[in-house]
Write a structure and sequence with these properties.
The complex is a heterodimer of chains A (187) and B (294). Chain A is of the alpha/beta class and 187 residues long. Chain A contains five helices and twelve strands. Chain A has helices spanning 13-22, 49-58, 62-70, 80-85, 177-185; strands at residues 3-7, 26-30, 41-44, 75-78, 86-89, 99-104, 115-121, 125-132, 137-141, 146-151, 154-160, 163-166. Chain A has a seven-stranded mixed sheet with strand order 2-1-3-4-12-11-10. By secondary structure, chain B is α/β, with parallel strands linked by helices. In chain B, strands 8-7-6-5-4-3-2-9 form an eight-stranded parallel sheet. In chain B, strand 6, helix 6 (132-141) and strand 7 form a beta-alpha-beta unit. The radius of gyration of chain B is 18 Å and the shape is globular. The N and C termini of chain B lie far apart (38 Å). Classes of the chains: A alpha/beta (187), B alpha/beta (294). The interface between A and B is large, with 39 and 40 residues. Strand 7 of chain A pairs antiparallel with strand 1 of chain B, so a sheet runs across the interface.
């Protein structure tokens, strides 16, 4: 059974746990450095990236997670998680800084502009439910980064080798195809 | 096709706040302190609840200039309060682009009979509750998030504890009932029948439920998480304490690490004086904000 950690400082942790368990994976909550031991992959959930960053600093998790990413541990970041992964965040300092993408926060406006759509993602499937909540987007990608989905001219899902990042929240829906893609073809 | 303001989009916003702390602030400076401490959102107000108590008179929606100032100061979501049943205050806040509206008993109700029809709005709402009936009525009207009412502005956790225990005990009862018992329970609670069926099916409330109304210390926040709250609102507890920066940071950490008592001990050391509390027994019935709304 694949053992997958979920950064559990704040945010949509429960949803990822449920979806992972439905995919027959073991879900491990990560709050401290010791929880990172022996993971096959790590999920960085949606939530507030500024809050997660403060807690990553205070509990000295930032460097250990960056190192694991550099060593090749598969990671999947959704919304705030994408912001944590990105090498560059417009107007803010980067966090883990491991995924070769430039990300802009709150790209679609405030909560009243948050929305849901169906996305066709050639590598994964058609009509995938995507919920965008005060979502970021990927402004540009480095060399060799696979752009998996775009919406309205903006990159919303991309893969940098063992790192997967998306603007929206697959964990809020019952459609587990993106997580399944991560777990089966990247972990 | 792109859809805004759907139930999923509105409830999902609250799901992203789970495990976090939402702090009351009255200006840009406080909002920045809250954000730097790790708040997941701020509530923009003209006065914190304990000052509303002191001031007396009619408490209304904040001056839009204050809300605007706070929205301009931070990148985290900004919430604001409208009076119970005040359609226009709510629409004004929605038009300003506030991320969440609290239809709040902390303000003087505008309507003693009807709450807002929250499903009509694109912006999501949070509402207070003391028991499952009240929680279910608010969800029925379209609330996307709940919080305990507690007793705002008192720095006394006792009412919030009472409310979270009551709601969760009633949810457990509904989950354990057989299908044919639910209609009678719906009648007794004054709760929509379909909602009780949903609660039974999924085993919990369909929206997140935060603690509010009396959180004054890191241990209070952790207690509410222990009792099953999804996150914490802190009203007067931060900016009425001796050292708001330290209190704010400590309450954020205690909420994340609510089962790690060594951490809570560490972060509680030399915090300074918390807000001065009020014994609930000293409040007359008409001073109890939790009695507002139904």
């Amino acid at each position: 059974m694949k053992k997958i950690g979920i950064l559990a400082l704040q945010g949509a942790v429960r949803e990822h746990v449920q979806m992972l368990e439905a995919l027959s994976c073991e879900a491990v909550l990560v709050k401290h450095v010791k929880d990172l031991a022996e993971l096959d992959a790590l999920i960085l959930p949606g939530g507030e990236s500024t809050t997660m960053r403060k807690l990553l600093n205070r509990y000295e998790l930032l460097a250990p997670i960056s190192v694991l990413a550099q060593q090749g541990l598969p990671m999947f970041g959704t919304c705030a998680g994408l912001i944590l992964l990105a090498k560059e965040v417009i107007d803010y300092e980067p966090h883990l800084g491991v995924m070769d993408v430039v990300v802009a926060r709150n790209s679609y406006g405030r909560q009243v502009d948050s929305f849901e759509i169906k996305l066709d993602i050639p590598a994964i499937g058609d009509a995938i439910s995507a919920v965008f909540i005060r979502a970021p987007h990927i402004v540009s990608v480095g060399k060799g980064i696979e752009i998996l989905a775009q919406y309205d001219g903006k990159i919303v899902l991309a893969r940098d080798g063992h790192l997967l990042g998306c603007s929206f929240h697959p964990e809020l829906t019952t459609d587990s195809r993106i997580l399944e893609y991560f777990v089966t073809s990247m972990v | 096709m792109k859809q805004t303001g759907t139930e999923l989009v509105k409830r999902g916003m609250a799901e992203m706040q789970k495990g976090g702390v939402i702090m009351d602030v009255i200006n840009a400076e406080q909002a920045k302190i809250a954000e730097a401490a790790g708040a997941v959102a701020v509530m923009a107000l003209e006065r914190v609840p304990s000052d509303i108590r002191k001031a007396g008179g009619v408490a209304r929606m904040a001056d839009p200039r204050i809300v605007e100032e706070v929205m301009g100061a931070v990148s985290i979501p900004v919430m604001a309060k409208a009076r119970i049943g005040h359609i226009v205050e709510a629409r004004v806040l929605e038009a300003m682009g506030v991320d969440y509206i609290d239809e709040s008993e902390v303000l003087t109700p505008a309507d003693e009979e009807y709450h807002l029809l929250k499903s009509d709005y694109t912006v999501p709402f949070v509402c207070g509750c003391r028991d499952l009936g009240e929680a279910a009525r608010r969800i029925g009207e379209g609330a996307s998030m709940l919080r305990t009412k507690g007793e705002p502005g008192t720095g006394n956790i006792v009412e919030a504890v009472r409310h979270i225990r009551k709601v969760n005990a009633q949810v457990r009862k509904v989950v354990g009932m057989t299908e044919d018992e639910l209609m009678t329970e719906a009648k007794l609670l004054g709760a929509p029948f379909e909602l009780l069926r949903e609660i039974k099916r999924i085993g919990r409330l369909p929206v997140v439920n935060f603690a509010a109304g009396g959180v004054a210390t890191p241990a209070d926040a952790a207690l509410m998480m222990e009792l099953g709250a999804d996150g914490v609102f802190v009203g007067s507890g931060i900016f009425k304490s001796e050292n708001p920066e330290k209190f704010a940071r400590a309450i954020v950490e205690a909420t994340t690490h609510y089962k790690d008592y060594k951490i809570i001990a560490d972060i509680s050391k030399e915090l300074g004086v918390p807000m001065k509390g009020i014994d609930i027994a000293q409040l007359s019935l008409n001073e109890r904000m939790q009695e507002r709304g139904w």
